[in-house]
Amino acid sequence: MVMKGMGDDQEEASSSSIACSSTSGCGACDHCGRQISLANLELHAMHCKRYLESCKLCGDMIPRRRAQEHYQSEHAPLKCSLCAEAFEPPLLAKHEKEQCPRRMVACSFCSFPVHAVDLAGHAEPCGNRTELCIACNKYVRLRDKIAHDLQHHTRINHGQLDHSTVDDVEPFLKKLKVGC
Ligand SMILES: [Zn+2]
Ligand SMILES: [Zn+2]
Ligand SMILES: [Zn+2]
Ligand SMILES: [Zn+2]
Ligand SMILES: [Zn+2]
Questions:
Q1: What residue ranges of the chain have pLDDT lower than 50?
Q2: Domain boundaries along the sequence of the chain
Q3: Who's near 130: CB < 8 A, 6+ residues apart?
Q4: pLDDT by residue (tens digit) across 66-102?
Q5: pLDDT at 19
Q6: Nearest ligand, CA of residue 31?
Q7: 116 CA distance to ligand 2 middle (Å)
Q8: CA 122, CA 3: separation in Å to the nearest integer?
């Protein structure tokens, strides 16, 4: 079982490795490390050394004349427009959307937009505010309101809704037909 499994893995690995027509065999380019068919290896290596270099920051092989471009788009630090901290471009979007302490988030109790860094300080007192529940005429803390509704009002509301739809819709439909 184990031997068979290992054999399968090796087959998969070799068949999925990078484009190399295996008729002539292949070798690794000593510049970029890719497997190249022996017939093309010399030519490739020449071309590769001349035109490609590995990025010192991420190790990607990039065309020499695009090195500057690559650096600008992948590594040149950009400042977050909100908190002014600098990030590599690929990380900046995530930072601005999910991590920046200055991004705006909505308070789950009052929906008011606040800075993420202030949310905890705002939500604590905000959730402790009470609001009159119109269904039972009691004051309920906002942080408990969802649980309160589920516990005390969900079933009743459903019952009322079901009745009202059955009772109201039929005469309403009749009226519609008559009206036409
Ligand atoms: Zn190469
Ligand atoms: Zn790079
Ligand atoms: Zn930021
Ligand atoms: Zn709030
Ligand atoms: Zn209530």
A1: 1-17, 156-169, 171-172, 178-180
A2: 144-180
A3: 139, 140, 141, 142
A4: 999 999 999 999 999 999 999 999 999 999 999 999 9
A5: 59
A6: 1
A7: 31
A8: 61
